[in-house]
Amino acid sequence: MLKNIIKKVSTHTILILVCLLSLIPFLWLLSTALKGRSENIFAYPPVFIPKDFTLDNFKEVLKLVPILRYVVNSFIVAGSTVILNVILSALAAYPLARMEFDGKKTAFFSILATIMVPFQTIMLPIYIITLKLNLIDGYSSFMGYLGLILPFAVNAFGIFLLRQAFLTIPKEIEESAVVDGCNSLQIFFKLLLPMVKPSVALLAIFTFIGCWGEFLWPSIVLTDERLFTLPVGINNLSSAFSSDYRLVAAGSMISIVPIIVFFLIFQKYFVEGGSEGAVKG
Amino acid sequence: METKKNLTAYLFLIPAFTVLFVFFFIPFFDTIKISFFDYSKDVYEPVFVGLQNYIELIKSPAFLKTIVNTFYFMILCTPFLVIFPLFLAILINQKILFKNPYKIIIYLPVIISIVVVAIAFKWLYAPSGLLNYFMEKINLPAVGWLSDPNVAMISVALVTIFKGIGYYMMIYLSALLAVPKELYEAAEVDGAVGFRKHMLVTIPHIMPSIVLVIIMSSISALKVFVEIYVMTRGGPLNSTKTIVYYIYEKAFENLDLGLASAGAVILLLIVMVFSILNIFVFEKDKYKI
Question: Is the pLDDT confidence value at A279 over 70?
Fold first, then answer.
């Protein structure tokens, strides 16, 4: 009995410690963001609860940098990327799971091969192609957004995730629909797609998170500040105001609010496991 | 009938394959092609030079250093990202209170953009920052976390580890769910408890997930970029310059596209060898047992 209690206590102690370590970098940033001009942010020993508590840094950073604009841009890019990923992955996954056709093996393995090639190794030619197709913000805002979205419109993880889901649907359901005179498109949209909703949700959520945090590609293609997504905007802010960490901290804190809200809304998809795959990275 | 069936399948595949062709297959072959040309004299008039870019890279101490740095970074990150999340997953997988709050908080760094995580750590690493305050508390000298060439890579690796723990923990957790409860009971009857029980039952059972985490964390370590870009820009004294950083610099700052692409092909080969090697070692073990 005593042994059990000791085990429980030590388990919770370790987990609470790990949770604290996961939060401290962000809490310290928050504390810095809440400190007023009159308080030394390099004070020694460090002060966790601000003495000169203020929201001025948040107001000022919102005035100096169009963070809300970055939020909107991130939503446009992540939202469109999610929609395209769901549609394109589902369309491609269906024949790979359900149809026999010439070249199926080739299609299957060429998609699989893309997993082995990191984006970083082919980003230069992707950039050249993006330039050639005028998918850049110098051409128009719309094309600029497209340039951020299209290279990530579909990936192998999404296709394989949905293919796996289609494979679990009994064949008889489809056959009875064929007998009822439905064509492939009707079967796909009205019958099969609603049945793989949980996998579609998983794909959508993880694509959104991956896209929301993406930095490398947007930082390469973006030149117009009006199209900056949050990570690019915040990185820019951190080099522009490196002398005033209060503002950098406040901007960073504002930038993580939307994704934390999103995370808490959909937390059951994360805590119930199944988070493998589907994450771009 | 046969052609119609083919046609339907192709119509479903066309949208995805169009994207993959334009943004994956063409760039893939372009990378290889560009690596055989010299762009350094005039970006608009590349000259075919065969393997010269590769030879130049292999002879370049600066490039070889980025390879050494990248592997050093991988060795710093991977063991920790394989073992610690497994330990946490086993702890959380018990019948305990606050299971979900623990999972949510430990997962939090995963969803937050690496840019913000790097900014938060840059602040902790500041010369008179929080970490050095703790160092002094435990009577250790202050550390130049990002300014000391011997330490900077470790500091960057800490950020990568911090951001990865929750992700790999979730992979282990879903693997642990699939371990049959009866196996533990059988092990307990045989007198195995605690650590030994996990060595006997848990570890062999979730071996595929452990290998998956080894492969995933090694490959993502080989691709590291953003942490370094935000925190050190490859410095101090190139001590944190990795292969991807080198490719980025050559391609987008020096416009030496040929050299950048040859570097990219070398990275590609390393990544591929690596995943094949990992699988091979794992398979060999499986046949031995």
Answer: no
Residue in B closest to A84 by C-alpha? B16
**Cross-chain residue pair A252–B120, CB shorter than 8 Å:** yes
Position B287 confidence tier, pLDDT thresholds 50, 70, 90: very low
Check A28 against B94: CB less than 8 A apart. no
Q: For residue B48, what are the β-bridge partners?
A: B37
Axis-axis angle for helices A67-98, A197-213 (nearest 10): 140
Provide the whole-model pTM: 0.90
Residue ranges of the domains in chain A? Answer: 2-54, 61-271
Structurally, at CATH architecture level, domain A61-271 sits in: Orthogonal Bundle (1.10)
Contact list, B104 vs chain A (CB under 8 Å)? 263-264, 267, 270-271
Predicted ipTM? Answer: 0.90
pLDDT higher than 50, residue B32 = yes
Catalogue all structural domains in chain B, each as residue range(s) with its CATH number: 35-288 (1.10.3720.10)
